Amino acid sequence: MGVTHVTVTIRNPADPTLSWEDLFLVDTGTTDSLVPRKHLEAIGLKPKGQRVYELADGSELKMDVTTADIEFMGEIVGGTIIFAEGDAEPILGVTALESVGIEVDPRNQRLKRLPAVRLKHTRLAEA
Questions:
Q1: Domain coordinates in residue numbering, the chain
Q2: CATH for 5-113?
């Protein structure tokens, strides 16, 4: 599979006027999104905790995380953002994509909007 990029804006939910925008690599093998620490701190975001992530080589790394508003393709979703060190390439993870009903078309290397957001295994409450 090739490489897909999309323009993404990360907003501070406490002050939406504070934002950072860049071209993100779309990675359907990554759960959460990743942004270099310096950009998150510049818009007033601070770590809210840490999570252990498994890297491609199988090793594990504990990383700082926060939550932010993620905007792309006319959609907005609240999501978990990983604080990356240095000048790491920003990554848009699969959780943000699936939350707004967008998937990667592997043939054309483009993002495509699904007719509806998937909602599985739910039951309507009986009155």
A1: 5-113
A2: 2.40.70.10
Tokens 């093998």 sit at which residue? Answer: 29
This prediction's pTM:
0.84
Torsion of CA 101, 102, 105, 109, to 10 degrees: 180
In this predicted model, what pLDDT tens digit does every residue of 49-99 receive, in sequence order? Answer: 999 999 889 999 999 999 999 999 999 999 999 999 999 999 999 999 988
Q: Are strands 91-93 and 15-27 parallel, antiparallel or unpaired?
A: parallel
Under a CB-based contact definition with an 8 Å cutoff, are residues 6 and 52 in contact?
A: no
**CA atoms in the 13 A half-sphere facing the CB of 93:** 14
